[in-house]
Amino acid sequence: MTGRDSRAPRQALQEDWSHWTAIIALFARRRPARRRVNPRAYASLRKDLIATCRSLAETDGERSAYYAALEEIVRPWLSPRVFARTDREILFTLLHRCREVEQELTGRKPRPEWMRGFELGPILAAGVLVVGLVGVLGKFGPPVLVALRDVAETAWLALKFADDLRLYSVLAVIIIVAAMYVVSRRNTN
User: Fold this and answer.
1) What is the DSSP letter of 115?
2) Which residues contact 7 (CB under 8 A, 6 or more apart)?
3) What pLDDT is stored for residue 137 in this prediction?
4) In a 10 Å sphere around its CB, with 0-12 CB exposed, 13-18 middle and 19+ buried, how is residue 25 labelled?
5) If we measure between CA atoms, which residue out of 51, 106, 48 comes closest to residue 59?
6) Of 42, 121, 122, 128, whose CB is crowded by the most CB atoms within 10 A?
7) pLDDT at 116 over 60
8) What are the residue ranges spanned by the domains of the chain?
9) Over the range 79-95, which residues count as b (16 or more CB within 10 Å of their CB) and which as e?
10) Residue ranges of the alpha helices (H) in the chain?
11) What is the mean pLDDT of residues 124-141?
């Protein structure tokens, strides 16, 4: 461990292991952020992880083999370039093992795989919105549905009897929105 590290060894291992696992997830999932992993910062993190594992292996007699095994997991991954050149199946296997270790170290159960990348705030906001809409439709249902139907019919008639310029304008907006969606999805993968 470096001199600047005043954390207790187990706390340092938990935090560094979580950070290292997050880096593996970036490469396994081919996230664009993987290209921004700083090689020097990664080397420092790896060095700290190995030093912490060695220190704990020397001082914790009962679990010395466990910490030595953790060091062996980290040792071959010399740089972000190694991750970039590694098969995704191997990276996902490594990621799965690292998540198990993270759970062992922290005692916290990890979020399910399908929830990774989702923040709870937007999910809760969407839930409140849906419940609110159901409440509004339950109380004011028929008038709201009639108004929505009228808006949809008006839009359809406006498009049906529009001249070419307006039709091309609407088509252009739809194409632009679709292109923005496709580009945004590509950048997150």
Assistant:
1) G
2) 15
3) 65
4) buried
5) 51
6) 42
7) no
8) 9-115, 120-188
9) ebeebeebeeeebeebb
10) 9-28, 39-59, 64-74, 80-85, 88-106, 120-160, 164-188
11) 72
